[in-house]
Design brief:
The complex is a heterodimer of chains A (about 110) and B (about 500). Chain A has about 110 residues and is mainly alpha-helical. Chain A has a single domain, classed as Helix Hairpins. In chain A, about 65% of the residues lie in helices and about 0% in strands. Chain A has helices at about 1-20, 25-45, 65-100. Chain A is elongated and about 65 Å long. The N and C termini of chain A lie far apart (about 45 Å). Helices cover about 75% and strands about 0% of the residues of chain B. Chain B is globular and about 70 Å long. Chain B has helices at about 5-20, 30-50, 75-100, 105-125, 130-145, 155-185, 190-195, 200-220, 230-235, 235-265, 270-290, 295-315, 320-350, 360-365, 365-380, 385-400, 405-430, 445-465, 465-480, 485-490, and strands spanning about 55-60, 70-75. Chain B is mostly helical and about 500 residues long. Chain B has 20 helices and 2 strands. Chain B has a domain at about 265-465. Chain B has a two-stranded antiparallel ribbon with strand order 1-2. The interface between A and B is medium-sized, with 34 and 36 residues.
Chain lengths: ~110, ~500
């Protein structure tokens, strides 16, 4: 079920990127897409009833969640931060040049 | 083989060292940047003497074997791409010595350049799916920043557009990698290929769709090409040369080949999808290019078209088609980066990119004019230049594979390319010299040197094409044709 939730989140983010006219709302859409992917990765590693993946020798019957996707998500969050910083910095510079966040007014490139 | 991590470690180290020390001496950034790319080029060539012919070198990071640790793999295809990336990077840094004087913050420029280079080297060397994603993002984030490097209004707009589309593509790639992990429980390409080969078809097609969208956008195939004509002309000229020359190939085409031939396995349907995407890129790119008057924008549309040739050749999946596609990839890296450097030299001298405002530059700028003529003839496929042979192979391969319509599309694309480069030559370099350009001088010496070197390589690769095919292209074709045998070669050694 949570898989569906992450895909719904992904679609909401994509909708936001495609439809919205404001740069900041597009950036929020990007963040939602990123979080949806991170959620998806975490869910892949989850085992119901699983424990944190630190071996407990006194309880050999314990079930552990998969630690690898968690490592992936950490990396992916850091990458997401880099992309977010970059896009916000560019949006600020765009605002300095054009005086607006509206993408219908930011269109000097065409052809 | 302990040399492989150096292709990422050295540029990363220098990239972070340059901003620290570049204030000490104004030439330090230039020297460090050029020495690094020269070292990497020499190392990439030197590895040809170390790597067993038609075999691969596997480096196990931290000594962990393939299914557990991250491994770096240097096979024919990786080596070929590595050499192309390092070669174009060296030419671009050489050119930057003079060209980047117009901009401030040379240290930051070289830093971002080397980060992008480290990312591309990592993408072509890695044997791990998530590692591929990480290096792809390093290269992509650096390229977003480099597109916006001039911080003019148009450049920021192009960079924003590129960034949003690139980030969505990366998200799709990561979802695809996640699904592969949940299917197989491994991120190692070789191990995933072994475990996927018996898996169900439907979910593999879903992953294939995600990867075609993600890597296809990085490669600017036609339905996903909208960012390229804005982003590539907006960057400084040596960066345009890197982006069009190697970035779309390392991040897009190489990753597509690696994932589809060596991990998922190419089915006839996928092969047909590639051919259609390739043919569409070929025609749409060149049709949009022909009406352009901005020199660099015209070149950017041609990049879409030429990548179409590469994908068409590779999508045929016959040995001749793959050979033509990979050879064309190399040739396109040479002549397209040369053309972008020419456009940069013209812009450096007369301050405009509009073809209508140029005219008669061949008398004042003989080196730029002559090298751009070589590059134009190469891209248009005039014998004996290199573009002729690779396009010929692709067209013959189409006919051999029983796909005459794709061959016809390739011929039409080539003719339209010729027409649009005749236009470039006529408006920019021939005709009468405009009076306001009486006092211009040829571009600085180092820019001329890197343009001449690339032009000689174009001519050399055309005249000596049997040797290029034998020593560079064929090992790559063998690695691609090996297909799922890739996983046996890596895991067998373990």
């Amino acid at each position: 079920m949570v898989y569906f939730l992450s895909f719904i989140l992904l679609l909401i983010g994509l909708y936001c990127i495609v439809v919205k006219k404001n740069l900041l709302k597009i950036i929020v859409g990007l963040v939602i897409v990123e979080y949806a992917v991170n959620l998806f990765l975490v869910v892949i590693g989850y085992r119901s009833g699983g424990h944190a993946p630190i071996i407990n020798l006194s309880a050999p019957e314990w079930l552990y969640v998969d630690p690898l996707p968690q490592a992936l998500v950490l990396t992916s969050i850091v990458i997401g931060l880099a992309v977010l910083t970059m896009v916000v910095a560019i949006a600020i510079r765009i605002y300095e040049r054009y005086g607006t966040f509206d993408i219908t007014e930011i269109r000097r490139l065409k052809g | 083989m302990q040399y492989l991590p150096l292709f990422m470690a050295v540029p990363l180290l220098v990239a972070f060292a340059i901003p620290l020390f570049s204030r000490l001496n104004r030439w330090l950034a230039d020297i460090l940047g050029n020495l690094t790319t020269l070292y990497l080029l020499a190392a990439a060539i030197g590895l040809y003497f170390i790597r067993p012919f038609n075999n691969m070198i596997v480096y196990r990071m931290g000594g962990w074997g393939p299914p557990f640790g991250i491994n770096l793999v240097l096979d024919g295809l990786s080596h070929f791409l590595l050499l192309t990336v390092c070669l174009i990077a060296f030419m671009a840094t050489l050119y930057s010595i003079a060209y980047m004087r117009q901009y401030t913050a040379k240290g930051k420029y070289y830093s971002l350049f080397l980060l992008m280079l480290a990312g591309m080297n990592g993408v072509v060397l890695t044997g791990d799916l998530f590692n591929l994603y990480v290096f792809l993002e390093i290269a992509a984030v650096a390229s977003y920043a480099l597109v916006a490097f001039g911080t003019e209004a148009e450049e920021l707009e192009a960079s924003f557009k590129y960034l949003v589309m690139g980030a969505v593509a990366s998200a799709f790639i990561l979802v695809g990698i996640g699904i592969i992990y949940s299917l197989t429980g491994t991120l190692n390409m070789a191990d995933a290929a072994r475990l996927l080969s018996g898996g169900s078809g439907t979910i593999k097609m879903f992953v294939a769709a995600l990867f075609i969208m993600g890597f296809g956008l990085k490669a600017a195939l036609v339905p996903f090409h909208a960012w390229l004509p804005d982003a590539h002309p907006s960057a400084p000229a040596p960066i345009s040369a890197m982006l069009s020359g190697v970035l779309i190939k390392a991040l897009g085409v190489y990753a597509l080949i690696r994932v589809f031939f060596n991990v998922i396995g190419l089915t006839p349907q996928l092969s047909y999808i590639f051919m259609v995407l390739g043919a569409a890129s070929m025609l749409v790119g060149v049709l949009l290019a022909i009406g352009q008057w901005d020199f660099k924008r015209l070149l950017a549309y041609h990049s879409i078209s030429q990548i179409g040739y590469v994908i068409l050749g590779i999508g045929l999946a016959t040995p001749l088609g793959v050979m033509g596609g990979i050879f064309h990839l190399f040739n396109h890296a040479l002549f397209k980066s040369l053309l972008f450097l020419n456009a940069g030299a013209v812009e450096y001298t007369i301050g405009t990119r509009q073809l209508q405002e140029m005219g008669g530059l061949s008398r004042k700028m003989p080196v730029t004019s002559a090298t751009s003529l070589v590059a134009s003839m190469s891209i248009a496929g005039i014998p004996p230049f290199n573009g002729f042979w690779s396009k010929l192979f692709i067209i013959i391969a189409c006919i051999q594979a029983g796909r005459p319509w794709f061959a016809l599309a390739a011929v039409i694309g080539s003719l339209l390319t010729l027409a649009s480069f005749l236009k470039v030559q006529k408006y920019a370099f021939f005709e009468r010299l405009k009076p306001k350009f009486e006092n211009i001088k040829e571009a600085p010496l180092v820019m001329g040197v890197s343009m001449v070197l690339l032009a000689l390589l174009c001519l050399g690769a055309g005249l000596a094409f049997p040797y290029v095919l034998r020593f560079l292209v064929n090992p790559a074709v063998i690695a691609v044709a090996n297909g799922l045998g890739y996983s046996r070669m890596i895991l067998g050694g373990f």
